[in-house]
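Exam prep: given the inputs below (a chain plus zinc ion), describe the expected output before reading on.
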Amino acid sequence: MKMILTGTGTSHGIPVIGCDCRVCRSEDSRDMRLRCSAYIEMPAGILVDVGPEFRIQALKYKIRNVSAVFITHSHADHLHGIDDLRVFSHTKALDPANPGNTETEGSGLAIYTNTKSEQDIRHRFDYIFTPVTEGGGKPKIRIMSAEGITADQPLCINGVEVVPVMLKHGHLDDMGFLFSERQESGEKHSIAYLTDCSFVPENSIELVRRNAGILDHLVIDGLREKPHSTHFSFEQALEAAEKMNPRNVYLTHITHNMSHVQIQKFVKDILWKFPGLKKSAENGFYVGPAYDGLVLEC
Ligand SMILES: [Zn+2]
Ligand SMILES: [Zn+2]
Ligand SMILES: [Zn+2]
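Solution:
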């Protein structure tokens, strides 16, 4: 299983429009951050979130196949590239006399998310669900509930098991995802992708601990040094991360307050507070900020 982090920036992205700060002007490519998204390469073909830069990310990282999309929550920075899924679904006009006809068009691209996000998608992108008689240049999608998927009955997408991990993003219910694959040795290896959260409930931590097998990679929201009402700070992210026994930890959804190199140093300096993560780092694993284009392999 190979996941590419196609975006690791907060909702503004970096550089921020009109900002001349040192990070926004940085020439280090790791300081350029598109909006948060990830893609598990074929044969899985799993996309997590479809933000406003999805088209740019798809071209840059050569995303040519999407078998399923997982939406963490409905904030604009995770969803508003939805129209560009057209190319991965079917663009033909729906038959208004028989909108449920799937005989000739296929049934559309599956999007898994929670009830609140489904409501928001149907409301904001109502044109997608309104049959037209002409043209039809719009994505054909099927919204599927991810709420019923449990660790006992995980969803399987082309060999990758997917289990949602419930998170709190301020007061909003958000979904992280645990992606697992059984390797030839029989060992289960996993990547947990937990963006946009300010709290990981105890049962979600348990779920990851119990079902990950070997948690090779944990991608977790770490906005900035200072706390925030809806996002983990770097330190809060590390505190939650340590409880899940990961090998490598990558902070994502990062602001322009610090450069990639500064965050690396900041994390290194506070690692003594987290003995489990400190040990991982001493064993050669990575604990620090993610960056766009980072490839995580199990
Ligand atoms: Zn976000
Ligand atoms: Zn800036
Ligand atoms: Zn958000």
